[in-house]
TrEMBL record:
Residues 36-231 form the FAD dependent oxidoreductase domain. Keywords: Oxidoreductase. Transmembrane segments: none annotated. This is FAD-binding oxidoreductase. SUPFAM superfamilies: FAD/NAD(P)-binding domain.
Amino acid sequence: MSKQINLPHDDSSCGWYAALSQQPACKRLHGEQRADYVVIGAGFAGLAAARRLGELMPDKRIILVDAQRVAQGASGRNSGFVIDLPHKFALEHPDPAHKQRLLSLNRAAIAQLQGLIERHGIDCQWSHAGKYQGAVGQRGLAYLAHFEQLLKNLGETFRLVERDELAQVLGNTYYSRAIFTPGCYLMQPAALVTGLAHSLPENVELLEESPITRLQRKGQGGWLLQGSQGTIRTAQL
């Protein structure tokens, strides 16, 4: 089986990445490589997968390959915050146990991120700031009242913040009311992603600026990954 990969057109306008200090030179895919495992894509999911593989299988060679520099893709371009509460549609799910599972998963992920940041000294401006859900007009206030009831049903901590107090936080009186929930963290996403990449286990090799343009399934023998300057053979992809 062979699958042709069409690469997206990416620009170089990521402000978070541009704000980083100069990054060290990267290692690219060259020649014929072999690995026990290959992970394609060094975003949050790929970094997590490669890290866990490296921890569980320290005697295996693991290659993590990305078409760009780490943090130039979506994981380094997000809004710069992580939240514990599910979004509104998930909060409206009829099964309370389902919502509690989402909360537990989100909070476990935040705790894991914070642990990695502290263990490896990742300077990403990690800050426990909380979140304000603001309202302006009647429609927004009605939504806020609904949100308040959902939080009460879930037994979650929150605080109503009125216009004057909110203005002290935001610097203007545009919002008439808000709900403050404490479980939100701010960070510099490109700094977080590069920090996670630079602290991978020793048996994980990171290859950047190395787009994989073709994947071939080699029967029961694994996969052949084709790049412009080299190939990787692996049993597990």
